[in-house]
Design a protein that fits this description.
By secondary structure, the chain is of the alpha/beta class. It has 3 helices and 7 strands, in the order H-H-H-E-E-E-E-E-E-E. The strands form 2 sheets. Strands 1-2-4-6 form a 4-stranded mixed beta sheet, with no helix packed on it. A 3-stranded parallel beta sheet has the order 3-5-7, with no helix packed on it. The protein is globular and about 40 Å long.
Length: 171
Amino acid sequence: MKKPTIHLNDLSINSINANCTRQFFSNTILLIALFWVSGFSKTYLRAQCHPDFDALIALYNATNGSGWTNNTGWAAGAAGMNCNVCTWHGVTCSAGRVGSIQLNGNNLTGTIPTEIGNFSQVWDLDLGNNHLSGTIPSSIGNLNLLVNLNLEGNQLSGSIPNEIGNLTNLF
């Protein structure tokens, strides 16, 4: 009876091909899992963010936040890595909401975004002595708890919006 012949060259090539194929699929599955988890975790993190997060990020983006004198916490927030807005420079929280935004003389440049009116609990807004331009958005009239508003020392233009009249608590 004739013994079967095993060709070592064929066996090693097939082994190498099988190992490469397994490694390729393992790496592919790992990469897909990483992309899915990173996308999922970013979405999950965003869903868990502070209720005033989006309005603060709009302020950061509209006023060249990366160029601020002090943007501690804000830059990480804009990158989706820090949702705890109560630890950001110039932000003070009360009862779980932003109550005060103090960014006086912090080199803000650009315009005040309409999202500024989305802060339901802000009583103090100080954006004075920066380089803000454009008009004051009418949405600022939504800040009905506002007691202190400082926009002096900027290059704002246009009329003061009538909605400022809604701010009956201003000093």
